[in-house]
Amino acid sequence: MSSARPSTVSSAATSAGPIRASSSASRFPPASSRRCCGNKPAQAALVLTLPNLITVARVLLIPVVAFLLLDHDYKLAFAVFVAAALGDWLDGFLARRLNQMSQLGAVLDPIADKMTMMIVAILLAAQEMLPIWLAVVIVMRDAIIVAGAVAYRFVVGHIEMAPTRLSKANTFLEFGVLALVMARAGRLIETGAWLIPLFVLLFASVLVSGAHYVWVWRRKALDNAPPR
Fold first, then answer.
1. Is 128 exposed, middle or buried (0-12, 13-18, 19+ CB in 10 A)?
2. Residue 173: domain span
3. 24 occurs within a structural domain
4. What percentage of the chain has pLDDT greater than the value 90?
């Protein structure tokens, strides 16, 4: 079988002239194009992961919590808020355990955190359940971080969002304090006077973690800035 193929090709070449490369190229596209098309399912799989779906669910819970707070349904708002907080831990845990960390998740996760904190803090302060000075520093910190991330993106050209340990601790404390405020509003617990020291502790945590964020990302921007 193998010895017959060269003679057939040779006779065909003799009778019909040289074989045109364009016909074979049209039937067999370059390997690079086939590789490109073949990556689409893989890219979709990197987006449609369980951690990313949990993060998207957290984003969708933000207007739900806001509506419940505006409706003064603090018990249900507390339950949904705690579910969002557990989802914040779960999506990160699953992303590491299943090795499904993605750029989309790295961007959506802090957005979900910051939007949740800012909206809940504003609504609780508007209803006089959270000190205004505490709500102001929470909103300002997150606004500065978002603005800094945008500026970093324009200066460096790319951004790899990775929360610091101080930021993680601050996020945990924010979730805890805001949840306690909602639980007290829903008469699920009696906090008494000990909630005030938690407000002061959170205030200090917000300032320290915010300043640390600015210092870390400023140093990264200087290290990764393109040469002039």
1. exposed
2. 30-224
3. no
4. 42
